[in-house]
Amino acid sequence: MSLSDEERRTMVQLEMERARRTFQEVEILKSAGLWNGVCNRLYYAVFHAISALLIHDGHQVFTHHGSHALFGQFYIKTKVLPDTFGKLYNQLQTMREQSDYNCAFNAEPEELETRIEPARQMIETIDKMVKD
Questions:
Q1: What is the CA radius of gyration of the chain?
Q2: Is the entire prediction scored with pTM above 0.70?
Q3: Do residues 54 and 71 lie in contact, with contact meaning Cβ atoms separated by under 8 Å?
Q4: Mean pLDDT, 10 residues at a time, over the chain (132 residues)?
Q5: Residue by residue, what is the 3-state secondary structure of the chain?
Q6: Per-domain residue ranges for the chain?
Q7: Within 13 Å of residue 73, how many CA atoms lie on the same side as its CB?
């Protein structure tokens, strides 16, 4: 399905709003000590920002794997964005999958603390890229 320019702008705006709201949930869950929830929300905050970027640039994505592949292909390998963003996205996906699907997994606060600010920077960078 192809989007009109207006539909694309609307979708990008909605995805970025979702990224920001989801990132706010990270802070709430962190304050409550709910670190597995932090894993989930941190990943999804970045995922929604990346989705906004992909939509902005006319890419169609139907799966999480597809978003990873296109993000790597068009933004990391081409050096549009730094390698650290690609690594962070991969780390967050792995942690999110462990926290969501492995009942024996407990997220380590120290490990997540080091990823919150880089995730915020990544979302802010993408937000600047998709502003018209």
A1: 15
A2: yes
A3: yes
A4: 87 97 97 96 98 95 90 97 97 94 93 96 98 78
A5: CCCCHHHHHHHHHHHHHHHHHHHHHHHHHHHCCCHHHHHHHHHHHHHHHHHHHHHHCCCCCCCHHHHHHHHHHHHHCCCCCCHHHHHHHHHHHHHHHHHHHCCCCCCCHHHHHHHHHHHHHHHHHHHHHHCC
A6: 5-130
A7: 10
Side chain identity at residue 3, one-letter code: L
Residue with tokens 């894993």: 39
Select the CATH number that applies to the domain covering 5-130 from these four: 1.10.10.410, 3.40.1160.10, 3.40.50.720, 1.20.120.330.
1.20.120.330
Tokens of 71: 């993000």
What confidence score (pLDDT) does residue 61 get? Answer: 82
Q: Which amino acid is at 61?
A: V
Tokens read off for 105: 């997994």
